[in-house]
Amino acid sequence: MPARGLKPAVSIAARLERVDWAEVARALDERGWATTPPLLTAAECAELIRLYPDECRFRSRVDMARFRFGEGEYKYFANPLPPVVLGLRRHAYPLLAPIASAWEKTLGSERRYPPELDGFLAVCAEHGQTKPTPLLLRYEAGGYNCLHQDLYGDVAFPLQMTCLLSRPAQDFTGGEFLLVEQRPRAQSTGSVVPLARGQIVIFATRHRPARGTRGAYRVTLRHGVSRVISGERYTLGVIFHDAK
Asked: Does 3 map to a domain?
């Protein structure tokens, strides 16, 4: 087995190319989130989970209860990222950047996103954001994650991804992925996003554009995880902007 992690037999780039990105863009425009078919194999999910106790692979650990974020913990990967994580981040970004730029245009912003991840990370670095943000999250029975947004500085990519690494109804029960949307002068709308092991949900980091009678406006989204009833639940978070 490779000393530094995972080497997929079928490249991450090839798997991402098989996704219907027109449908992903449509779903993101309509509701602020979209799912892919399972993209990581069972073996890859299990190997990522096995990395969790290896402290040298991570730059920091967060006890969620300490900061009143919920119940559970998560760890941010250090560089170099595991190959599967790096592959998802590097090869998904160019597919999402046009969607992100289109959202900015719809909202009347002149901001546009570089076509490749390295160009975007250079922008992050110019603003003092150089720490990698992909992370592993772990919940035991009773664990949950409060509704939140993953913002680490002045620069934030409008989209991010979460991949479920555990098996629903086998490794854990409960623990549904949650999204809550807040429109101006309206009550909040919640969504439960069912995921299978290896499946990814792509969702708005902070807000998305929506169309109204007076033109486009911003809709705010927050995400979280409902309480885990039993077992252990692991997920991989892939955030494209770096942190300070």
From this structure: no
In a domain, 1, yes or no: no
pTM of the predicted model as reported, rounded to 2 decimal places: 0.94
Range of the domain at 127: 12-238
Total domains in the chain come to 1
Written as six digits, the tokens of 190 are 């919640």
Residue 155 in tokens = 């620069």
Q: Give how far Cα 116 sits from Cα of 15, 17, 120, 136, 244, Å.
A: 18, 15, 7, 24, 21
Angle CA(166)–CA(58)–CA(95) in degrees, nearest 5?
65
Dihedrals φ, ψ of 164, to 5°?
-80, 130
Q: What is the domain-level CATH number for residue 212? A: 2.60.120.620
Residue 92 burial class via C-beta count within 10 angstroms: exposed 0-12, middle 13-18, buried 19 and up: buried
Question: Is a pLDDT exceeding 50 seen at residue 214?
Answer: yes
